[in-house]
Amino acid sequence: MKVVFLLPLILAICAANSIARKNKDEPEKDWWQTTIFYQIYPRSFADSNGDGIGDLNGITSKLEYIKELGVGAIWMSPMFQSPMYDFGYDISDFYAVHDEYGTMEDFEALIKRADELDIKVVLDLVPNHTSNESMWFQEALKGHEKYYNYFVWEDGIIDENGNRQPPNNWLSHFRGSAWEYREEVGKYYLHQFVVGQPDLNYRNPDVVEEMKEIIRFWLNKGVAGYRVDAVNALFEVDKEKFGGKYPDEPPSGKVNVDPGSYDTLQHIYTKEQNETYYMVYDWRDVLDEFKAKDGMSRVMMTEVYAAIENVVKYFGEGDRQGAQMPFNFDLINDVDSTSSAADIKRAVEQFLTYKPVDKDANWVVGNHDNSRMATRFGPPLVDGINMITLLLPGIGVTYMGEELGMVDGYISWEETVDPAGCNTNDPINYVAYSRDPERTPFQWNAEKNAGFSTANKTWLPVADGYETLNVEAENAADRSHLKLYKALADIRQNKVFRYGRYESLALNLDVFAFRRWHKNDAYVVVVNVKGNDHIVDLEYFENVDGKVQVELTSVDSPKNKGDKFDAAALPVAPYEALVLKVK
């Protein structure tokens, strides 16, 4: 009789243990941990009114396309009021929508439609600087003390010839001195970027509070978080530690660098100041204020091109939480079409090695500031790189057009509008600096302007080849980059890719492969990064033997879904990429 009475208790204990094990193996994930983030450059995505410039209503009209991709969140490059000298990164009013892009009502309509489709909207926050046409800066020039202190001012130096010179040797990212003189106040202001982007003074508590209010303003409008631009430039060294004068920065020692270019100096006084990390932690507190109200996490992504040990500091420190996604640019900075399988493996595993064990990795292969993924790696590798981005453990980030294999457009010197190119004043070598090629209009179909706009002239010309490389053509094709991308977005919801563990191998100079497994299920992703045939042995992976079955293939693969191969002797064609189910 005792056994009979104990049996329900024993079963209940076993069930509880089983649930506990499952929860440990399959912890509940937040929305930002499982989605794909899709970056939209508003000026180039879709033009709804025929003026040749993309706009908010154009984005709203294409949200169904985003949903069909399997994407759950969009991140929009700046859409705030701006004179557009740096195309939105010079903000004149942080609380208003740029008039070329639409109205606040248009923005609210976008948020409403995105919410209906269960798509989160993330904005670009540009906290380091404002525009010299902003009310803040204009009031500073008039002597308004509050706004004067919003910026970084310094006296100049009189040289031996009696000429006024900048206070030190600091350089702008866009070439030349980072200081600009204003007669109105008799001082120089700091601009780490273009002249029209005066740096804000984060040693002023009023600036700190103003930026927090900006963050709250748009969160109240319904945005799900921010990508924070150029965050490591927020603070300059405290000049009081140097007798009240900002010190010169030392030479970088780099060779073959143009005089006056940013790379000639080590930026030890203008980047990665320790206060910057704590400012990011404070902003995370603001995001968490909103989560405390409704239970939904607001995400922060930080843009930092820096040494990996500095990048991971943005995750947080101790009990202070920072960005959920300090952007991982290793697949942009460290590898390209010349890279070997071992180079790819090293780039992938660097971030996995350095990040805190309890934080999520993220994978970025392109954005509006870097040559497009298909151009850097070559069109044959589009599918393989998308497999890597979407099937590695962590969060996938896609720059608009990567799902199609869009390539850089050709922009002549006469058509160049990016200040990074224009400021070279060099009609021959400007192409090495201009970011216009990766910002060309999105390619929707084979019609006029690739379906982006009905205008006679678009703000940048459409890239060559759009007649065959576009959404409409790839949706109609039997195999296409777009169709594979959708399949990858679907398969990444599998528990193997959501919860599974990871290991990788460079099987030879050309073939990179990684295994994902969870409980009794496993997949192997194989990417041949070169144009050579190979036969590879996947049994170097633990618990991979017998047969493997093809689940997904790159567009030009000779294999088909369902094909089976010996794991010990898998033939791999040039540039072929495969997702294989371990049988």
Kindly list the characteristics that best describe this protein:
583 residues; Immunoglobulin-like; 6-stranded antiparallel β-sheet; disordered N terminus
What this model shows, in words?
The model is unreliable at 1-10 (pLDDT under 50). The chain is an alpha/beta fold and 583 residues long. The protein has 19 helices and 25 strands. Among the domains are: 129-199 and 237-271, Alpha-Beta Complex (Oligo-1,6-glucosidase, domain 2), CATH 3.90.400; 498-582, Immunoglobulin-like, CATH 2.60.40.1180.
Query: Reading side by side through the largest sheet, how are the strands ordered?
Result: 15-12-11-5-2-1-17-16
Average pLDDT figure: 95
Q: Would you state the CATH class of the domain at 129-199 and 237-271?
A: Alpha Beta
* CATH superfamily caption of the domain at 129-199 and 237-271: Oligo-1,6-glucosidase, Domain 2
Q: What's the gyration radius in Å?
A: 26 Å
Q: Structural class, from helix and strand content?
A: alpha/beta
Q: What is the CATH third-level topology name of the domain at 129-199 and 237-271?
A: Oligo-1,6-glucosidase, domain 2
Main beta sheet: 8 strands, parallel
Helical amount: 25-40%
CATH architecture field of the domain at 129-199 and 237-271: Alpha-Beta Complex
| Shape label | globular
Number of strands: 25
Distance between the termini: 47 Å
